[in-house]
Write a sequence for this structure.
């Protein structure tokens, strides 16, 4: 069964009453945790974007602090998990400035595990990949904002 296109869905949604829309959204929220997280962001967190970035960065910092660093494998697994969470929140916000702030904070936290980064090629590749994504995102920003972020990235390299 092929799903309908976005424009077809939008046309159908415009025909529904407010009560029917509320019931449809409530039903949608029951199925995936990510749907609930997205609606939570849109309803509550999108208003205060700086506060949202601060909460995400605090969450990343606490995840790094709680990380089991007994061996490199567990560190890599934890780092990938943290990165999945960051990427999910970046998809939610869709703002390049917020994306840069989250990725730069992640790189700063990861850089504190310097000996593990140097001993593990996979961790180094994750770090380099994030730096590359930061550079690509900076290129899409307005020139005035680019300078601020270029300085921060310079400290990471």
């Amino acid at each position: 069964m092929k799903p309908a296109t976005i424009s077809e869905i939008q046309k159908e949604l415009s025909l529904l009453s407010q009560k029917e829309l509320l019931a449809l959204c409530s039903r949608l929220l029951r199925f995936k945790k990510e749907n609930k997280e997205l609606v939570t962001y849109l309803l509550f967190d999108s208003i205060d974007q700086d506060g949202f970035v601060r909460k995400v960065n605090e969450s990343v910092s606490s995840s790094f602090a709680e990380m089991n660093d007994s061996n490199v494998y567990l560190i890599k697994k934890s780092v990938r998990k943290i990165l999945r969470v960051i990427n999910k929140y970046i998809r939610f916000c869709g703002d390049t400035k917020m994306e840069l702030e989250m990725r730069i904070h992640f790189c700063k936290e990861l850089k504190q595990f310097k000996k593990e980064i140097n001993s593990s090629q996979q961790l180094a590749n994750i770090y380099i990949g994030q730096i590359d994504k930061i550079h690509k995102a900076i290129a899409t920003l307005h020139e005035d904002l680019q300078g601020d972020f270029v300085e921060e990235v310079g400290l990471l390299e």
Observations:
- The chain has nine helices and no strands.
- The chain has a mean pLDDT of 89.
- Residues 48-156 form one domain.
